[in-house]
Amino acid sequence: MDDVDAVTQAVLTASRLLVAVSAHSLAEVEERVTLPQFRMLVVLSSRGATKLVTLAELLGVRPSTAMRMIDRLIAAGLADRQTNPDNRRETLLRLTAEGHRTVGDVTARRRREIASIVQRLAPHQRTALIDALADFNEAGGERPAPLLDAGPGLHPLGWGE
């Protein structure tokens, strides 16, 4: 096995762990929100009021798929529609207070679970992991996640926008 295969296998294994952490962090809200719907909430949380077409592009889905997703989130009380004050023919989608709370709660659970895993590593392993993941993220075109104190509405969940 060459080193590209070894790294690919290690990243695939880590991705399984991260998907499990993601699923576990959603456990308390899974009756209301699926993982793709949560991703939509995260995008709305970080971008604010957004047009449907823009939201669909950011998520890499068709507008009809985004419409079905947002309709479910609206029915769950996590998002709503508003008329664009700058163009009354446009509708903007945004999170409700409950939507913001949900994103914050799930993010906090995810952060705690990841921190608990990272704490099991020796300090030199943590440093190596930071360097390796920074390089990996850069190679994949992913922006660094904001720090905890980066401001309201920003949630480091590992999904690009």
Please provide a written account of the structure.
By secondary structure, the chain is mainly α. The chain has one domain: Orthogonal Bundle (Arc Repressor Mutant, subunit A), CATH 1.10.10.10. It is 60% helix and 11% strand. The chain has 6 helices and 3 strands; from the N terminus they run H-H-E-H-H-E-E-H-H. It has helices spanning 3-25, 35-47, 52-59, 63-75, 97-118, 123-140; strands spanning 50-51, 79-84, 87-95. The protein has a 3-stranded antiparallel beta sheet. Helix 1 packs across helix 5, helix 2 (35-47) crosses helix 4 (63-75) and helix 3 (52-59) crosses helix 4. The chain is elongated and about 55 Å long. The two termini are 34 Å apart.
Question: What does the secondary structure layout of this molecule look like, with pairings?
Answer:
Elements: H1 3-25, H2 35-47, E1 50-51, H3 52-59, H4 63-75, E2 79-84, E3 87-95, H5 97-118, H6 123-140
Helix pairs in contact: 1-5, 2-4, 3-4
The CATH architecture would be: Orthogonal Bundle
Oligomer: single chain
Give the low-confidence spans. 149-161
Mean pLDDT: 87
Number of helices: 6
Number of strands: 3
Please indicate the percent range of residues in DSSP E strands (runs of 2 or more): 5-15%
**Main sheet specs:** 3 strands, antiparallel
- The CATH H-level homologous superfamily: Winged helix-like DNA-binding domain superfamily/Winged helix DNA-binding domain
CATH class: Mainly Alpha
> How many structural domains?
1
CATH topology: Arc Repressor Mutant, subunit A
- Strand numbers in spatial order across the main sheet: 1-3-2
* SSE run: HHEHHEEHH
Radius of gyration: 18 Å
Structural class estimated from helices and strands? mainly alpha
Helix content: 55-70%
Write down the overall geometry: elongated
Q: CA-to-CA gap between the ends? A: 34 Å
